[in-house]
Task: structure prediction
Amino acid sequence: MRARMKLAMNIEPLDLDQTLGCGQTFRWHRSADGCWTGPLDGQIIRLSARGTNIEVDAHPGGPGVRALVASHLRAEDDVPKIQRALARDPVLRRGLPHVKGLRIVKMDEWECLVSFVLATYANIPRISGMIDTISERYGSPIGDGVNAFPRHSQLSKASSAELARCGLGYRANYLRELCDEIDDHAIKQMKRLPFERLREKLKELPGVGDKVADCVSLFGFGRLEAFPIDVWMERALARLYRKKGTYRELREFAASKFGQYAGYAQEYLYFNERLNAGNGACVFSNE
DNA sequence: GCCCAGGAGTGTG
DNA sequence: CACACTCATGGG
Result:
């Protein structure tokens, strides 16, 4: 019987389904009863909504669990204030009531970097599969048959041939080279860089271009001004703003329109565009 | 079987 | 700088 701990937290607003299920992060799983379970910094965390509170079930638990969850869900963000600022844009204003509890998450920088390098040109179920595989093979067991995401030192032991057998496709080589070109210390140094310099530094890494650099800046390094643009976002910008162009042009468009909260705007639009493709239930429109 | 995927790297115009 | 082509493969 593993050690186990329960506690209640108040992080508002928060919609677990929207926040953990929208493709920002890949290791949370929803069970039929609506609980979300995932590995976080060596803990297995289960989250469930209890009115305006969330119940946190952690094992092994410990004094750091509350801070861990608060950090991951960015409890410090004043989301209503962010949404009031973004509501100056008429397109966002109409849909914001439907995504009140969609928050940006804060991932571990290394995990985020690897995850989004693997995420290139793959769909979300496959990305989850790739990440599960490398976690099973190279991460440390933390209970219930779940492994932590492999640390840099653990993943660095994998040969290129081994990684190729993890179903990563051409991404295996990126990951192998990535391990050689960065380490925990370099990541620690990068945390201090201003956004644009961080972005340029990330782009020097193998497998990291504009889009991955923006994802890692946003979800890993917590830079809310980052605005990742993938195929879904290109569609959203074309459909809702009649805006097309190169990555640079779209990025500058977003920066001028959404400013310091571009990352939140991106996640709202991304969430909506995928809904739109799925069942037509889009919540943002330009009409 | 076909199509597409939270793109990046490389070479060319 | 902008575009075209290639990369390897699982999930819908």
Q: What stands out?
A: Chain A has three domains: 7-76, 109-220, 231-277.
